[in-house]
Design goal:
Layout: H1 23-71, H2 80-83, E1 94-101, E2 105-112, E3 124-130, E4 133-139, H3 148-154
Antiparallel strand pairs: 1-2, 2-3, 3-4
């Protein structure tokens, strides 16, 4: 009887490369993402501010409609409570203030609140009605003294 030994086949030891990214590849990718996001974020935040600004425009036009409805039945324009209008816009980005109401006209201001305060150029919007004259104003401060071009941009015209 002969004894045979079976030997396991010998194979050279191979290193397998781990799947994934190396540190330089990861650093390069993160650098590219950082550069692209630094370019895209200002454009995105500007668009977001513009979209939120429509909240104020809708609220101010609503006040204008309610004022004319109220004036049709009264000798003077009303305040926000008489009109049944909330002092904060529907989406909560602007605070409304009726600055003046008389038999001839009124002035209502929308002031940005919360995150919308970052919309510095159009932080305040004012709608003034005096007889048949309607004035749309906007500005960084309560004075609403933007130039005509900025004013048109703020009011979406």
């Amino acid at each position: 009887m002969t004894l045979t030994r079976s030997h396991a086949p010998t194979t050279p030891c191979r290193r397998t490369r781990a799947a994934g990214f190396s540190l330089p590849e990861l650093a390069f990718s993160l650098t590219i993402v950082g550069i692209l996001s630094s370019i895209a974020y200002p454009a995105f935040s500007s668009t977001l501010a513009s979209v939120r600004r429509s909240d104020a425009l809708v609220a101010l036009m609503g006040v204008q409609t309610q004022q004319e409805r109220y004036r049709a039945n009264h000798e003077t324009y009303g305040d926000l409570a008489q009109l049944g209008v909330a002092s904060v816009s529907r989406s909560g980005h602007y605070e409304l203030t009726l600055e003046a109401a008389s038999p001839n006209g009124y002035s209502v201001r929308a002031a940005a609140i919360g995150a919308q305060r970052n919309d510095s150029v159009c932080r305040y919007l004012r709608l003034s009605v005096d007889g048949l004259n309607v004035v749309y104003a906007s500005g960084e401060s309560d004075a609403t003294t933007n130039a005509a071009a900025l004013n048109r941009r703020c009011w979406g015209q």
